[in-house]
Design brief:
The chain contains twelve helices and 28 strands. It has 584 residues and is α+β, with helices and mostly antiparallel strands.
Length: 584
Amino acid sequence: MASFHSFSPGSSVTPTSEIELNVSCRNLIDADVFSKSDPIVVLYIQPPGSTKWVEHGRTEIIWDNLNPNFVKKFHLTYYFEELQKIKFEVYDIDSKSRDLKKHDFLGYAFFNLGEIIGSPGSRLSKNLIDGGKGRIIVSAEEVSSCNDKVTFQFAGHKLSRKDIFGKSDPFLCFYRSNEDGEFTICHKTEVIKVTLNPRWKRFELPVRVLCQGDYHRMIKIECFDWNRSGKHELIGVCYVTLFELDQNSRTSTISKFQLIDEKKRAKKKSKYVNSGTLSVEHIHIEKGYSFLDFIRGGMQLAFTVAIDFTASNGDPKQASSLHYIHHSKPNHYQMALEAVGNIIQDYDTDKLFPCLGFGARVPPTREISHEFFLNGRADNPYVEGLKGIMDAYNYAIHNVQLYGPTNFSPVINHVARFAREKQDGTEYFILLIITDGIISDMPQTLKAIVEAATLPMSIIIVGVGNADFEAMEVLDGDDVRVSFQGRKAERDIVQFVPFNNHIGTGASNSAVETRLAKDVLEEVPEQVVGYMRNRGIVPKPPINLPTTPTETAPTTRRSSVPREPTSQERQLPPPPYTPSTSNY
């Protein structure tokens, strides 16, 4: 879908499209001794004006398979006028570590985004380099703007027996048809062991993923018998559209869709009937709303900053410190604040932001605090605009003593308290944590995140410096949902980005900040929509803008303290530094 731009005569706009890359591999090298390889594909991109490769995302792991078709897709913005270089690396996963150096390298391949899109059917295959053998196949498709979601539950009946000494272990694969007639996998169910009459769990898919928003586009469903070796046996195939599935659910008699094995039919000819049938036990299509629908309806983004003031950052008076204030260039904390603040402030009408710090000894008590106000006030953490955020950060650097440990849970719980009071869809809270180190209170942080996942709240963590941030990946629930004492988070609300991925590329500070802002904020719209959908909240009608300077639209704002400062108070110098302090 081409990006929407307002028409402005006498100006220019770069043509862009949101695209989705689908990846599969063939004939990979077998790197495991007693089984086949367990491949994963990692996508790298080059930011504009840079020669450094930056990780963009990873597929899921497919176990014991040398010819994997990955379900997870990569989303990119395609710029027609730019040369966009991308690189795919393939690994055999040997452990739970996210450190790619700890896994077997199977090869890589370079592509230009334009050459994929310009290939027949927007599909291109290349041999893997440095891996011994194998190739990677990449296809591109423009992303539909459809926001609808469909929930299914399927059941199988009288499936063919594939196991000699038992029944079958069936699972389903769903594929959407592409413009070139090929099919792209978009969902895989769980395996149900030892049954010919399975009933799979309910699952939800975006309609654009299943059929690009076209209810009459063909969907292929394959039923397989699972085998530990990875050589799954086909039971049968059926073809259907979402329109047919939906219409079938509206009739009093539920139809069954035949699974056909063409090889078996060719062999048995007229004696062949089918290899079993599928029925739709449940289908529900829900109209979807976009992030912009909620913004247009008046939802505000409530932005809070929390900064790490632990001693591991280094003495701020020394140039080697991550908190050192340069006269000619911003430090990494300042760059991260500016990158994210520049974007978020546009979605908050009053431009007042709470700014917190943690891990420092603060005056006048000199006690350790993990929840103090950067502006030096004891009664109010709010500052005005991006400049206010930067000024509060500078003020705190010169008035606190860096100490420790690195505790996240107090600031997460701080924001959660106010998000809990605003669960009606009028506000959504975003907490930006900038840190240099490994979390000291991981159990408490996991508990805080699991509880916050039920609230209108997202957490962005930017890691600065050269610390080992592998533990942070546990909090970013892209692959495995965060849990605490057996309770899983209702949704993924954390996005972690290492700042070092965006520096050392030769790009300007402005380009680095632009790229960082994109990476840390890209999951927020989906997280907002996910919360609203889970709570059954729909967007309000678009707010009409005031027609005269004297007309003002009513606004509702959050409060992190009993009251906000008046305009006169904002002009006064800050009172003696007496922030709230706590010992952790």
